[in-house]
Amino acid sequence: MTARVTAVVLDLGGVLTESPMTAFAAYEAEAGLPDGLVRRLNSTDPDTNAWARYERGELDAAGFVDAFEAEARVAGHRLDARRVLAALGGDLRPSMVAAVRRLRDGGVPLALLSNNVAPMERTGRLGELLDLFDVVVESSVEGVRKPEPEIYRRTLARLSDAAGRPVGAGECAYLDDLGINLEPARALGMHTVKVVDPAAALAELSALVGIPLDDAGGRRVPA
Fold it and tell me: Can you say how many angstroms the Cα of residue 40 is from the centroid of all Cα atoms in its chain?
């Protein structure tokens, strides 16, 4: 049977690395803040809040800290936005990185699509990971972010197969841990996989690409 998917796009934090939500929750518990506060602040006015502006490169780190702490105060809480930023690092998920390597070995065009606050370093361990991808699209570089449809269109426009043929949305799978980020990809015609349990996500992706995807070892990189 011919595989339905011939190219794969993956998120970084919460897909290739452990979700920063776990670290956010740990900080909230330590600081005596309500559980889920950071997530709620991030989802309030999601196109214009401090997080959105930071990921589009409209704020620098100091500007984000001031704006995010102000949003928390409006919600009735005081937090240290620098601690929130420090929680963005995450451990690599060995099975997910192994799957990327197997997809690459199988000749599958690969893209990384990440909301981030600064361009990723192309050196060291993170550089080794980025080298596995044919295309890397970062919100801080593009000036647009997920879930804005434009960033998905740019990613698709830069993907091509071994013969240089553009990859159509219907030939591409997109993996993300957040449903809000999967919706625009699905609307464009991409196959979407929500990553909650990595093993289940890999089983779903295996069925789409027709390639077995198994576990291997991993390391810690920024989300």
Answer: 18
Q: What angle do CA 125, 56, 99 make, to 5 degrees?
A: 35
- Provide the β-strand partners of residue 136: 112
Domain boundaries, the chain: 7-17+92-222, 20-86
> pLDDT digits over 147-190, tens only?
999 999 999 999 998 889 999 999 999 999 999 999 999 999 99
Helix (H) or strand (E) holding 176: strand 172-176
Q: What is the CATH number of domain 20-86?
A: 1.10.150
Q: Which pTM value belongs to this model?
A: 0.88
User: How many Cα atoms occupy the beta-carbon half-sphere of 138 within 13 Å?
Assistant: 15
Q: What is the fold, at CATH topology level, of the domain defined by 7-17+92-222?
A: Rossmann fold (3.40.50)
Name the nearest CA neighbour of 189 among 152, 154, 164. Answer: 152
**Length of the chain counted residue by residue:** 223
Segment 3-39, tens digit of pLDDT: 689 999 999 999 999 888 889 999 999 999 999 999 9
- Is the CA virtual torsion 5, 179, 184, 142 positive or negative? negative
How is residue 114 written in tokens? 């990440």
CA distance 41 to 54: 14
